[in-house]
Amino acid sequence: MGKPSGLVQGTLDLLILKTLSPGAMHGWAIGRRIQQVSGEVLQVQQGSLYPALHRLEQQGWIRAKWAESETGRQARFYALTAAGRRQLESEAANWSRLSAAINLVVNEAG
Amino acid sequence: MGKPSGLVQGTLDLLILKTLSPGAMHGWAIGRRIQQVSGEVLQVQQGSLYPALHRLEQQGWIRAKWAESETGRQARFYALTAAGRRQLESEAANWSRLSAAINLVVNEAG
DNA sequence: AAGATGATGTAGATAATCTAAGTATGGGCA
DNA sequence: TGCCCATACTTAGATTATCTACATCATCTT
């Protein structure tokens, strides 16, 4: 019934940047964390996550390096750059603005 | 600087259905109304609006008929169907769920 | 007569996400 | 030893929503 997808289109960059803001994390963990923090509502598919990470890296908003994960495997750890922090601010503000605007329409008395 | 588009992808159907919930309205007026109610934040392009209306009509969520607009011109008036009302409920609930989940991530103390 | 505004329409581009594969490593277990 | 499972990353191709950029036509104003 309808289209209950796992994400709202256009918000994944924001979610990733925010998740990285306390400190570096590898891709797999980012996906798990978004899912956990959102109360298992947001589902980040690998086919969405990894291309998004590459995109963000290409924009210069995150920087990657290989390191050992908690489980002893090699994993690609991502950290916010200064530009990434500014981008996070900007995307968070934009989300605020747009979601508030949508709520004005949806929560109209009518 | 980022991508400040006029809409959040995936929310236009909801916005249209909600706008039609008090009563029938023609396409042009729907676009104006969404823009006004959202405080001029949401911009509904004609190239997004009309295809969306056709889509919704095809799904059976709205029904159209030609009639005279307030200005005396012919216009296509759209009204919610019963199925459309159910769809509105469903999409509103889904938006609630997803936007709340996103806010959990974005507003994390971190 | 021209120009602005209302009103609808569509073709083609863009871009984000999903589907659905695939590869590889390490741990647990029979 | 062999097998499966969870972790971890990658990518090609499809889907789909929205945007850009037109085009058309009517009415009202100047």
Description:
Chain A is α+β, with helices and mostly antiparallel strands and 110 residues long. The first copy, chain A, has one domain: Orthogonal Bundle (Arc Repressor Mutant, subunit A). Helices cover 54% and strands 15% of the residues of chain A. Chain A has helices at residues 12-20, 27-37, 46-59, 82-106, and strands spanning 25-26, 62-68, 74-80. Chain A has a three-stranded antiparallel beta sheet with strand order 1-3-2. In chain A, a hairpin with a 5-residue loop joins strand 2 and strand 3. In chain A, helix 1 (12-20) packs across helix 2. The structure holds a DNA duplex (30 and 30 nucleotides).
Give me the strand/helix succession of chain A.
Answer: HEHHEEH
Number of domains of chain A: 1
Largest interface: A-B, 40 and 40 residues
Number of helices of chain A: 4
**Alpha carbon gyration radius of chain A:** 16 Å
Instruction: Give me the secondary-structure category of chain A.
Output: alpha+beta
The CATH topology annotation of chain A reads as: Arc Repressor Mutant, subunit A
Share of residues in strands of chain A: 5-15%
Q: First CA to last CA of chain A: what distance? A: 25 Å
CATH superfamily descriptor of chain A: Winged helix-like DNA-binding domain superfamily/Winged helix DNA-binding domain
